[in-house]
Design goal:
With 96 residues, this protein is α+β, with helices and mostly antiparallel strands. It is built from four helices and four strands. The strands form two sheets. A two-stranded parallel ribbon has the order 1-2. The chain has a two-stranded antiparallel ribbon with strand order 3-4. The longest helix has 10 residues.
């Protein structure tokens, strides 16, 4: 979460939304708050959003276009450099 938070602050043109999967809303939000998350956080308690975007394992990062279409899914933890590279690939970040 800290890497995603840092990326979100450095690249405000890229909309970052966290999704706590298969978890309770209050617990997820309390944890996110405790680690300083400022980007929006949704909770997918039943896994239906994961299924919609085809996420078969966690952690997963879904790249979704402005029309809600899935354009890429990356599985596993990501570094700041990974996030910048993904955003550049899809036209969302101009600098590191």
């Amino acid at each position: 979460m800290p890497t995603l938070e840092q990326f979100a602050r450095a690249h405000p043109a890229v909309k970052v939304i966290g999704l706590a999967a298969l978890d309770q809303d209050s617990a997820s939000r309390a944890f996110a708050h405790s680690v300083g998350v400022t980007y929006p956080l949704g909770v997918d308690a039943d896994g239906s959003i994961l299924a919609r975007y085809g996420a078969a394992a966690l952690p997963a990062t879904a790249v979704i276009d402005t029309h809600g279409r899935l354009i890429s899914t990356v599985y596993g933890p990501l570094t700041s450099s990974d996030l910048v590279a993904i955003a550049r690939q899809f036209g969302g970040a101009s600098g590191a």
